Amino acid sequence: MSLLFNGRSRGAQLSQISILQRIQMFFLSHLRQALGSLGEMWRAGAASLMTIGVLGLSITLPSTLYILVKNAEQINAGWDQASEISLFLKAETSKQHIDQLLTRINSWPEVNKVTYIPADDALNEFKTLSGFGDAIAYLDKNPLPPVVLVAPTEKHAGPAAARLLLDKLRNEREVDIGKLDLEWLQRLDAILTVAKELVTMIALLLFLAVVLIIGNTIRLNILSKKDEILVMKLVGATDAFIQRPFMYTGFWYGLLGGLLAWFTVICLLWWMSSSVEAVSALYQKQFTLTGVDFSTLLIMLSTSVVLGLVGSMISVKRHVSAIEPK
């Protein structure tokens, strides 16, 4: 009984060792073929570098545009509140009626602060800021109306609430024109929507180009090794075993192209950072370009590797299976 038990335990150990060896050989085989395909790319030299360069630059353009659009969305989100509403009063409004208007508006719960700018002060400010002081001196009368600046509370500073407050202010009899400083942000948001659609279209076209380039490169590689593939099939090699090195070649093209694209995007954003800082200084805002963090790197590498594998898979499935010994 004990001999039978010992025999079974030894058989189980041998079976377990065999399974472990199979797993080990599986990974060693993949590693050997992956390194072998990388070595062939290295020996190809200039041709591999040109292919990697085309792939990297093809991924760089949509990646850069995407990061710029995301940064613009951050600006839009940061300024997505109305700072103040400008009310241009009717020119014939008397000082008494203006004081009554200011008192009424100040009593509203939606209003945080009210600032009154008389017409003469508005003209003097315009002379200082516009540089047309000498020309304005020839005017017979002041063409600018009195202005009331209304700052909503934080609760009513959102786009919808601020627009309701604007409509309420426009109903006042002393108000001629009411303007909300959030309108230009709504135009910016519409432009960003169009920009995102353009980036998506450009990305799809360039990604398709990447797949075609990799597929054509792998096809040429397969045709150059046609005799080698025929010999391998004659000795019993499976299609999967023959296809594997070409799949790894597509993987390496995608990985190296993605790294090149990421490095190029960093260089482009660094080159543009000084211009962005100069523009943000004009608006008295502190803003720096972001979006080249580790998560962006992972997304770019994942995308480029998937494109490389798709392109190589399309090519090997079609051309390796077509090579058969007669």
UniProtKB/TrEMBL annotation:
Transmembrane segment boundaries: 198-218, 251-272, 292-316
GO biological process: cell division
ABC3 transporter permease C-terminal domain ranges (all copies): 201-318
Keywords linked to the UniProt accession: Cell cycle, Cell division, Cell inner membrane, Cell membrane, Membrane, Transmembrane, Transmembrane helix
Positions of the FtsX extracellular domain: 84-157
Cellular compartments annotated: Cell inner membrane
Membrane topology: Multi-pass membrane protein
Top-rank taxon: Bacteria
InterPro entries: ABC3_permease_C, FtsX, FtsX_ECD, FtsX_proteobact-type
Signal peptide: none
Oligomer and partners: Forms a membrane-associated complex with FtsE.
Function: Part of the ABC transporter FtsEX involved in cellular division.
NCBIfam families hit by this protein: FtsX_Gneg
Family: Belongs to the ABC-4 integral membrane protein family. FtsX subfamily.
Protein name: Cell division protein FtsX
